[in-house]
Structures are given as structure tokens and as C-alpha cells.
């Protein structure tokens, strides 16, 4: 992959370097292209050049100018990031303290994230419990110079993981003086108050030079109860959540509370009341779920970064770089709830009534002593360190030798009810019957009586997990001119790497030992792997108009007693028939070693936070929005296993494009891209299995197809004549597999235009559009391999458009930035939510040479995307946020320099 010069998120902004004797260099000075910078895509220094593959660059100043909340927000907004991902604002996920991106919709684990061109440690907890990825939520912006994004296969330059592309976060190498940045803001609708302070500086001591930066920030959570449209789950006519429920286990009918819920009427801000369901009366509230759910996590963090260089004689330079981070994140997805004997039969025999009963309770903030008493907490500590030397070899050749170490430690604490909750609500257990059913002499008055904070404290505790990951690497590289061709010097680069990578997930040993209510044991999982790599790259200007690029690399991994490796290559052409036109093409192969979590995960059991039984909904003839079996919480049990026999993924990517820049004030680029993966490693989605099972059982899909036979075998249901929960899902079996293939292709179009007026200052308009034309996924050979784009089965963005208009007049700079997302399927899978626009705005006033004040507004028109077919929380979770308009005031001041 070659260096590109797209200096904004939307367009390229430079032309190739010219020999002074080249007649094409005689360009009118006022239209001469601007100088470019070295960016991701190649290990060859190619100043002032375009290449065969496009690279998007986000400058540090773009983060505020375009209205982004943080680095993660900017990366998520890229048009190339068409994939749906769960993050810190998604809600109930495996990784609510982390964010990920999915270039070209190929998943977070197919995008390689680098800092200063070096690998960093993965987030120590797997995304969706399955795949490894790099967390982009804790990347500070204090010392960022630019972020470079190369989309497409790049394994021949960077090795495994770079199937969908590469994100390289480049830190500043030089800072003059000391700068202070203060920022504070919040949301118009409430919640999310935040503040940030940054201090950056640098020094030049002759031979010794350095830069440093410190960032501290804080953010309050946003609770769903702070948004009127989802403050109550019954607003659209849905049944209230059960707060107090007592059922006959055999028939499932609710047993009417004797006091009509009078004792509980003050809970959830006085919203608990009797509700007459089809199968009886229970005490419910529409505020039970919104009260506890945070739609944005709370966060406190501190980050520090710095770099030193020491100039020696003979062109030799020693360097050291470091980034350090500490963060505490809190969220809540539901308050504590309880179901009688949930770890056993799920029901008990009541000696007082001589019948099988199921008791349920959902505890209110008034009983806990505050809604945040049951917040989960994540405490993260990270470091990235690199030391090395670089300098001149002979002639034009330079070298770099470096050692880098990256470490990520996460400690999580989760509030839980202890096993004592059973006796608190049911009384002492007095034995079991002939069928193994627990027997209690349970007084319903115990169930319908609100508890005190002291009673909750007596039956609550916190469990913990300790998760760590690391990545160490030694690397040596050299680059320079090799020999001459008619078009110029052939430049070459070679690289050798050796590294080790590992992770460890350790859980509280009390889980599954009967200490906590309804928990299962979680074994310690660990794994390591070693990697060796050797690669080379050539850039050959065959003529002044035609340049060829070739790169090849071999990576070999050692893990789990086996060895796996791959040789990948890249070939590209740049053709410039005119000084203003570049035609480019590239083809690359890539690979990805299986995620360590896929390889080393043991058999684990657990349950999903919520599940939908699509088959029973279909049997009942109920749409998902009104189905009694949709979004049931807690969800179904699952059994998950890893596999050390997984094969590495193999990918291919193609690119064909053109860049036209008739004058320096205007450029236009068009690029077609395609990426294909075979032997894709993926963890089966339990929700996808349930959907497929329902289609197979109801005849929508061929019951004899390989997919149907697999899905039906994975879902174990209770017998239809079972006493309790007949026909319900008892367990789902999931595991990673090598899918047959996955492929996607589409088009990127970018343009930029700049103009200057005598009275109205300077203007810049730019835009970038990505359209996914095809996305195909085939789980097993012989299965349907249709294009999912345009169907409800396509869960990613079909298109994204970013556009901005900037105006500079005197000391003022104003920017409007708009994003348009293509249509997505409604939750009920019947119909669409059309394209959607969001607009950010910023204005900055340069008071003097040292001081600047800015106002930034995100979601200028305070729009919240709704889904009329959705159940609570009534918006497309994950695709859009319910936060509404947010604003910040920012002050920059520079000392010295």
C-alpha cells in the first residue's frame, strides 16, 4: 500500500512530485498543488506523491472543527466505517467500556489499529464475547497529529488483521511552547455533563528534543429516564414490566396479590400498580427498565503521552515513546431482579399452598438507596512503550530498529444479589420433593413487601474479573533508493519482526459456588502466540507516467501447539497520462490468524441478557413488536466452546480509481473497491440461530438444507409435555466456525473545492460518499449466497455521506458538517427507516495570537431517530443515539512558542 495525501476526511489534496526538468512541473504558481505528508500505506517515504490506494486523513484540528465528541466519534463517522458495532453507548454489551470500528462492515477484528505505526494490545475482553479488537474509546486527542485510515487489504505491509484496512494514529513529533485546552459541555435534554483539560508542550535542547501531553476528562452518564420518549415502557401500549409477580408454575397464571399492590405503590416514583394481563394480575411499572438503563456511560480518565529523541553523531538518533492511560467507566443496564430457584428448576413447591409456584421480583431504587448502587464499574490501565534507534546507512538508505511493549489491564466489578435472597423472600428451605423440586413454606407477604436498603445490603455483594492483554515486538526496517529506471529511482523497503501476544481472563472464584444468586462458574482463560514476519516492498517508476508497486510478506504464528503462516502480496499501478489526472489500480492478498479468544476459550455456560423466541412468535401469529416471547429478560441459556482447529482466514482485495485535480483549489476522486474473505472465522449468533430455526421449522427455509439442519440441532427445547415451560428454549449451543465466504464491494466518491472572495473570506466545501453495492455471506458451502444489501437481513449501513462547509473571515472560522446515513430495516423487519441527516456546527474566534475560543454543537437540530415499530426504548439502538443536541465551549491558550 502506498502513501496517500488525502488531508481531510473527504478528498485527496496533492499531486505527485515532479522532476524540475519535467515540463509538467511548469504549473501556474497560483494553481500549484499543496505539499503533502507521509501517511499510512507504505514503509517507503514517498513525500509529495499519490499512490494506488486511497487513504483518508483526519487532522487533529478536524476533531473539533467537524463537531466530533472525541477520537472514537470521528472514526465511527468515517464513510468507510459502514459496519454496525456495539460500543460504550450501546447498552448491555460484553464491552461497554470500549468502542470499535468495522471498516467495510467486516467486523472490528478485521481492522488493524496502530499507534505511530506500531501494534498495541487488544482490549482484554472479547467483543460480543467472541473476537479480539483494539479499543478506540480511550484514545486521547492531546498529542494526536493526524489519524490515517487505509481501507482494503494491507497484510503484505502490516501482516495479519489488516484485511479490511488499517487505522494509524500518528502522534505529534514536535510541539512549540506550552498549550492549554479547556473544554466543558453537556446535553440540552439533560445528562452527559462533561469536562476536559489538556496540556501539551515540547522542548528543544539541541541534541535532546521532546514532546509531552496530559489529558484529564470526566463525563456523567445519560439515563434513559432523562429522555421523555423512553422514560416509560408503556408509552406505546406495551405491558408494564413485572415488579412483583407470583405465578402458578403449572399453568403460568398470575396469582392476584392480596393487597392489590398497595404496599408497593410507592416504588419507582409511585408508578407501581396492578396490571391485568391475559393470564392474571401482577404488580408492574413502565419505569422499571428506563430507571436503570444508561444510554451513555459515565467516565473518568487520565491520559499521558510523550516522546524523546537524542541526536548522536553520524546521523544516528535514539528515541523513546510512551502513552499511558487510566480510566474508570460506569454503566447500568438493569437493576437487580430475582426469580425463585433460578439456578435450579426455576420454580418451587409451596408447602403453604401445595402447588408449584414461580415468584419474581425487580427491586426499585427506593429499596437500594439509590439507582447507581448497582452500577457496574470498569477500571482500565494501559501503556504503550517503544524505544529504538534510527539513522542513515549508506547513500539514501535509512534504518530503524525498535522494541515496543503494549499492555492493557481491565478490572471489572459487578454488583450481584447473594444466595441469601432466596431465604429472605421465601423463608428457609425445608427439603425437596420426589422430582427434585425445592420446597419452601413461602408467605406471599414476603414477596409483596418492599425491602429496605439495609436488607438489600445484607444480600448483595460485588463479583470481580481481572482481564489483561499484551503485545511485545522487536522490529527492524530499512528503506532507500536501489537503482535507476527511466522514470526515476526504484525505492525499496525491507522489514523483519518478531513478537509475542497474549491475554488472560480471570473471574471471581465465588461464581458458581453458591455464594451469589444464579451464577455459574467462569474458568480462567489464557492464551499466547508468537509471530515472526519478513517483508519487502518495491516502488518502481517505470516511466514518468507509470509507476508500479509490489510488496510481499510472510507471517508465521505459533499457538496451541500448532504453526500457521501465510505469504501475502500487493501489486499496484499509478498512471498519470496528464499532470492533473491519476488513474490507479491495486490487487492484494491478505490473511488473518484466528482470534486468540476463538482458539483458547473453554466450554462456558451462561445466559443472554434477553432473547427472542421467533419460532413461538410465529406459532402464536404475533408480530415481534407485540410478541409475548420477544425481548424476554433474562434470556436463554447458552453453551459456548472454542476451537484450536480453526484455519486462518484468507482475503483478497481489489481497487480501481481515479483522482483528478485540474487546479489546487479543486479535486475529485472516484474509487471502486472489493474485499473477499474465505474461511471466515465467526462465532454463530444466537439470535441468528433462533431466527434461522424459526424459518426452518415454519417452512420459510428448506428444512433439509445444511443451514436448517445445523440451526435446529443447536437449539434444545423443553418437551411439549413438560410440566413447566413446555416447548421453551432450554439451551443454545454456539461455537466459532470457518464460514464458507464473505465478500463486499462498493464505491467511494470524494470532492473538495476551495475559493476566496474579496469581502467574504475563504471558503472550503468537501464531501465523501460511500455506497455498499453488495455484501454476501455464505455460512456453509451450498447455502444461499445472495446479495444482502437492500434486504432486511443486511444489518449495516448501505451508504454514508459526509459533507462540510467551512468559512474563514478575519479572526473567525465557522464550519457546518453534515452526515447522511442510508436506510436501515425497522425492528419488526417489515419496512424501512429512510435516510437520515445529522448536522454539527462549530465556530472559533482567534482573540489574539495565543488565545482562541470555540463553540461546538453536535446534532444542531436536536433530532432523535425513532423507530415506530420498535419495542422499548423506541429507537434503533446501536445505529443512532438518543442524546439529542450537545454543546461544548472550548478555550485554547498558548504559552511561549
TrEMBL record:
It is a multi-pass membrane protein. Residues 346-860 form the TonB-dependent receptor-like beta-barrel domain. Residues 50-166 form the TonB-dependent receptor plug domain. The keyword Cell division does not apply. Residues 1-13 have a biased composition (Polar residues). The keyword Transport applies. Gene3D superfamilies: TonB-dependent receptor, beta-barrel domain, TonB-dependent receptor, plug domain. Belongs to the TonB-dependent receptor family. It comes from Roseateles chitinivorans. Transmembrane segments: none annotated. Residues 16-31 have a biased composition (Basic and acidic residues). This is TonB-dependent receptor.
Amino acid at each position: 500500500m502506498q502513501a496517500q495525501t488525502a488531508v481531510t476526511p473527504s478528498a485527496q489534496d496533492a499531486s505527485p512530485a515532479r522532476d524540475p526538468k519535467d515540463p509538467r512541473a511548469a504549473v501556474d504558481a497560483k494553481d500549484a498543488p499543496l505539499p503533502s505528508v507521509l501517511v499510512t500505506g507504505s514503509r517507503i517515504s514517498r513525500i509529495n506523491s499519490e499512490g494506488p490506494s486511497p487513504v483518508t486523513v483526519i487532522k487533529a484540528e478536524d476533531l473539533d472543527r467537524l463537531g466530533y465528541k472525541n477520537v472514537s466519534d470521528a472514526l465511527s463517522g468515517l464513510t468507510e466505517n459502514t459496519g454496525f458495532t456495539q460500543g460504550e453507548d450501546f447498552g448491555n454489551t460484553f464491552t461497554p467500556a470500549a468502542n470499535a470500528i468495522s471498516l467495510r462492515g467486516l467486523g472490528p477484528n478485521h481492522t488493524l489499529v496502530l499507534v505511530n505505526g506500531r501494534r498495541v494490545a487488544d482490549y482484554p475482553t472479547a467483543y460480543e464475547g467472541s473476537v479480539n479488537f483494539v479499543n478506540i474509546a480511550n484514545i486521547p486527542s492531546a498529542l494526536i497529529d493526524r489519524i490515517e485510515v487505509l481501507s482494503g487489504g494491507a497484510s503484505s505491509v502490516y501482516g495479519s488483521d489488516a484485511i479490511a484496512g488499517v487505522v494509524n494514529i500518528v502522534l505529534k513529533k514536535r510541539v512549540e511552547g506550552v498549550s492549554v485546552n479547556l473544554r466543558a459541555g453537556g446535553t440540552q435534554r439533560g445528562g452527559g455533563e462533561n469536562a476536559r483539560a489538556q496540556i501539551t508542550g515540547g522542548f528543544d535542547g539541541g541534541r535532546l528534543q521532546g514532546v509531552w501531553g496530559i489529558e484529564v476528562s470526566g463525563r456523567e452518564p445519560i439515563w434513559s429516564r432523562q429522555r421523555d420518549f423512553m422514560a416509560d415502557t408503556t408509552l406505546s401500549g406495551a405491558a408494564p414490566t413485572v415488579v412483583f409477580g407470583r405465578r402458578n408454575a403449572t399453568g403460568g397464571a398470575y396469582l392476584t396479590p392480596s393487597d392489590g399492590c398497595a404496599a408497593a405503590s410507592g416504588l419507582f416514583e409511585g408508578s407501581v400498580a396492578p396490571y391485568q394481563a391475559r393470564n392474571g394480575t401482577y404488580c408492574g411499572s413502565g419505569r422499571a427498565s428506563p430507571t436503570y438503563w444508561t444510554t451513555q456511560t459515565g467516565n473518568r480518565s487520565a491520559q499521558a503521552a510523550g516522546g524523546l529523541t537524542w541526536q548522536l553523531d553520524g546521523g544516528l538518533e535514539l528515541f523513546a515513546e510512551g502513552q499511558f492511560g487510566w480510566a474508570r467507566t460506569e454503566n447500568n443496564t438493569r437493576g437487580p431482579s430475582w426469580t425463585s430457584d433460578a439456578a435450579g428448576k426455576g420454580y418451587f413447591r409451596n408447602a403453604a399452598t401445595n402447588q408449584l409456584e414461580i415468584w419474581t421480583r425487580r427491586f426499585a431504587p427506593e429499596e437500594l438507596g439509590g439507582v447507581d448502587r448497582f452500577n457496574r464499574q470498569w477500571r482500565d490501565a494501559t501503556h504503550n512503550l517503544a524505544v529504538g534507534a534510527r539513522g542513515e546507512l549508506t547513500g539514501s538508505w535509512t534504518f530503524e530498529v525498535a522494541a515496543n511493549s503494549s499492555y492493557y489491564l481491565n478490572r471489572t466489578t459487578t454488583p450481584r444479589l447473594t444466595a441469601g435472597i432466596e431465604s429472605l423472600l421465601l423463608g428457609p428451605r425445608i427439603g425437596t420433593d420426589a422430582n427434585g423440586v425445592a420446597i419452601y413454606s413461602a408467605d406471599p407477604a414476603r414477596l409483596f413487601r418492599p425491602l429496605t436498603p439495609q436488607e438489600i445490603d445484607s444480600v448483595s455483594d460485588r463479583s470481580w474479573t481481572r482481564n489483561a492483554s499484551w503485545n511485545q515486538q522487536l522490529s527492524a526496517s530499512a528503506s532507500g533508493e536501489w537503482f535507476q529506471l527511466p522514470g526515476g529511482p526504484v525505492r525499496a523497503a525491507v522489514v523483519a519482526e518478531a513478537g509475542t501476544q497474549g491475554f488472560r481472563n480471570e473471574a471471581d472464584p465465588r461464581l458458581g459456588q453458591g455464594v451469589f444468586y444464579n451464577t455459574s462458574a467462569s474458568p480462567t482463560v489464557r492464551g499466547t502466540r508468537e509471530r515472526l514476519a519478513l517483508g519487502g516492498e518495491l516502488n518502481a517508476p517505470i516511466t514518468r507516467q507509470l509507476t508500479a508497486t509490489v510488496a510481499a510478506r510472510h507471517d508465521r504464528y505459533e499457538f496451541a501447539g500448532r504453526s500457521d503462516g501465510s505469504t501475502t502480496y500487493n501489486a499496484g499501478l499509478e498512471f498519470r497520462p496528464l499532470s492533473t489526472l491519476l488513474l490507479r489500480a491495486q490487487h492484494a492478498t491478505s490473511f488473518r490468524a484466528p482470534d486468540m479468544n476463538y482458539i483458547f476459550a473453554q466450554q462456558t455456560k451462561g445466559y443472554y441478557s434477553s432473547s427472542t423466541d421467533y419460532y413461538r412468535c410465529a406459532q402464536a401469529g404475533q408480530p415481534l413488536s407485540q410478541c409475548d416471547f420477544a425481548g424476554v429478560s433474562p434470556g436463554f441459556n447458552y453453551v459456548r466452546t472454542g476451537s484450536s482447529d480453526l484455519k486462518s482466514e484468507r482475503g483478497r482485495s481489489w481497487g480501481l480509481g481515479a483522482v483528478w485535480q485540474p487546479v489546487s483549489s479543486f479535486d475529485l476522486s472516484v474509487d471502486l473497491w472489493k474485499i473477499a474473505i474465505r474461511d471466515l472465522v465467526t462465532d454463530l449468533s444466537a439470535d441468528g440461530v433462533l431466527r434461522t430455526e424459526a424459518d426452518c421449522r415454519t417452512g420459510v427455509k428448506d428444512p433439509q438444507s445444511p443451514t436448517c439442519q445445523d440451526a435446529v440441532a443447536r437449539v434444545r427445547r423443553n418437551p411439549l409435555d413438560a410440566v413447566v415451560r413446555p416447548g421453551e428454549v432450554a439451551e443454545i449451543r454456539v461455537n466459532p466456525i470457518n464460514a464458507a465466504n464473505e465478500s463486499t464491494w462498493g464505491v467511494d466518491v470524494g470532492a473538495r473545492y476551495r475559493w476566496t472572495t474579496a469581502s467574504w473570506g475563504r471558503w472550503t466545501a468537501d464531501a465523501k460518499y460511500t455506497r455498499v453495492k453488495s455484501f454476501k455471506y455464505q455460512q456453509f458451502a451450498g447455502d444461499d449466497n445472495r446479495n444482502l444489501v437492500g434486504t432486511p437481513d443486511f444489518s449495516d449501513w448501505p451508504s454514508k455521506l459526509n459533507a462540510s462547509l467551512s468559512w474563514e473571515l478575519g479572526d473567525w472560522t465557522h464550519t457546518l458538517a453534515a452526515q447522511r446515513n442510508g436506510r436501515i430495516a425497522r425492528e419488526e423487519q417489515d419496512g424501512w427507516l429512510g435516510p437520515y441527516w445529522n448536522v454539527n456546527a462549530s465556530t472559533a474566534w482567534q482573540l489574539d495570537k495565543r488565545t482562541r475560543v470555540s463553540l461546538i454543537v453536535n446534532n444542531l437540530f436536536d433530532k432523535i431517530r425513532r423507530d415506530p415499530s420498535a419495542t422499548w426504548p423506541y429507537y434503533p439502538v446501536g445505529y443512532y443515539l438518543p442524546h439529542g443536541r450537545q454543546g461544548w465551549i472550548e478555550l485554547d491558550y498558548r504559552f511561549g512558542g
